Amino acid sequence: MHRLIVAAAAALTVLGGAASAQESIKIGYIDPLSGGGASVGEGGLKTFQYLADELNAKGGILGHKVEIVPLDNKTNPQESLVQAQKAVDAGVHYITQGNGSSVGAALEDFVTKHNSRNPGKEVLYFNYAAVDPAMTNEKCSYWHFRWDANSDIKMEALTNYMKGQPSIKKVYLINMDYSFGQSVRTTARKMLGEKRPDIQVVGDELHPMLKVTDFSPYIAKIKASGADTVVTGNWGQDFALLLKAAADAGLKVNWYTYYAGGAGGPTAVKQAGLEGQVFQISEGVPNSGNKAAMDFEKDFRAKTGISVWYPRAVNEMRMFKAAAEKANSIDPVKVAAALEGMKFEVFDGGEGFIRKDDHQFFQPIYISSFGALADKTKEPFDEENTGWGWRIVSKIDTAQTMLPTTCNMKRP
């Protein structure tokens, strides 16, 4: 962690000097490198640095070297705006972020206002994980592109799977108290009510984001409710500590999650002994069977020490290069125009595309369960040295992931 903070400080020192935009393409990585979200922020930084190295090994983007500039936002919207302004003042034209939709919404608003006030100095925001549906609906912006499925798309897929599980009778909702967590709880209630009106929602809890260190009181409520299933959008330490408390209390229920595969999550699931009882919705699975993706996974793990948490980041960076080549330019305005409607072969196979109407990326998504791996030749990748890994239980093709948008985009 100290190394990452030093790297961030060094990057800001570089930004403070003469800008070298003509020599390289700097991407401002605005995510937590300290505080409660640091574990996922560190993993994201390793991912983007690896992807920059991959591009640079093949000549960069139109001959320009790609550099990742780490900017620690402490998962705080106000701090994110400070870091974004520092980057922009030094000539950075691309920023990327993923952890926290409250941060994402602030950055989306920032780039929209900046670009309207500074023609010729436009900035693009590449969103790899902030999934509040509002960001590509009523708050949509021409300058924002999202490579992750939004929360509603993910819940649509999860509840379609859940409606076919007759053992689900009583559901408990527990989520982080900010825009994304609030969206998960609201949409889960709505969709379960429509698809399985016989299911009881026996608890609906919001808790402070990245501030709870002991989830045992929450677990006690879940046990007392008689729930057989928990639905949560928790991520980072808020998922790992939640499952740790469940393990300590001997809570044995099914979990339907967005981010169980993040830092510390697999270890917590194994410790809780929940084999085959934790499900995750994601755009990729390490043991997918796709040779190119699995070769990438092997090399990535060897060089970074973590799993590929973000196949969507791979898609983002590779599509950035494709769009620049299509436009024959690294000008953000021309890159944005090239990205609109772009089709692309995604990391784990299959075609994805960016919808022009709202800049939401659509791709195949998967529901997988976590447990022991039966065939190490076909399933070589476990998680966090637990001996357990992810196995696909359902695939949703791109066409079936699409939900309508209310976006009324203003174009330059």
Rounded to an integer in angstroms, the radius of gyration calculated over CA atoms is 21 Å
**3D shape:** globular
Major pleated sheet: 7 strands, mixed
Runs in which pLDDT lies below 50 for 5 or more consecutive residues are: 1-10, 12-22
Question: Could you describe the 3D structure shown?
Answer:
This protein is an alpha/beta fold. It is 40% helix and 20% strand. It has 12 helices and 15 strands. It has helices at 2-16, 38-57, 77-89, 101-117, 151-162, 179-195, 216-225, 237-249, 265-272, 291-304, 311-327, 332-339, and strands at 24-31, 65-72, 94-97, 124-127, 144-146, 170-176, 200-207, 229-232, 254-257, 278-282, 343-345, 351-354, 361-362, 365-372, 388-396. The strands form 3 sheets. A 7-stranded mixed β-sheet has the order 7-6-8-9-10-14-15, sandwiched between helices. A hairpin with a 6-residue loop joins β12 and β13. The longest helix has 20 residues, at 38-57. The radius of gyration is 21 Å and the shape is globular.
